[in-house]
Write a structure and sequence with these properties.
single chain, alpha+beta, Alpha-Beta Plaits, Arc Repressor Mutant, subunit A, 2 domains, elongated
Length: about 220
Amino acid sequence: MAARRLARRIRIDVADTVDPVSMRPEVLRAFDTAHLHALVVEQGRGWGAWTTFAEEPSATELHRHASAARRAQWLLRSSVPSAMGVGRLYREATGLARTLGEAGDAARLAATRSAGGYFVHVDRLGLGRLLLAWTRTDTFLPAARSMLEPLSGRPGDLLATLTAYLDAESSLTETAAVLGVHRNTVATRMAKVQELLGVELTDPDERLALHLACRSVLFHS
């Protein structure tokens, strides 16, 4: 059986006023000029593009591909207000959803980074930095505030307690030391937090979502 090809997703987002169908030739022209070979399709509010490799590319080839994508975005933005995100390279059989998600998140983040030419490459940024940077964008903040709204106005500064607790990896003793309160006080507050938010902090996905939400809200406060 032939080996699965490797694929990398590119996502380009544009403003609602831009018609992706009529502006597709601009994308193709930018890709061609930058020597970026990809299949481009209209998708939602922008375009999706795929690049594939028959064999594992070298570090030099990956660098060349990333540079071509950045140049294509620079060329495209001269005629279309766009933001480009590039996902990592995965085997087609197992990694399509992951590179799709990464490229989409990177494009949303790119829309907030004018200094970077409205371009974000996940390999360069790193997933940890991507997540942290995303929590500081206007797209994430409303969702974070909505998630944590039940804690507002409650006695005991539940948001600060939750943040310290998650930073301390669920250690009641360490959280109490950071906040300068008794361990039992932290336990009581955290029980109230879980009741108000309707979450189980033993669930790693819920913990991550809450931790990112706390960081976002506190960063903007």
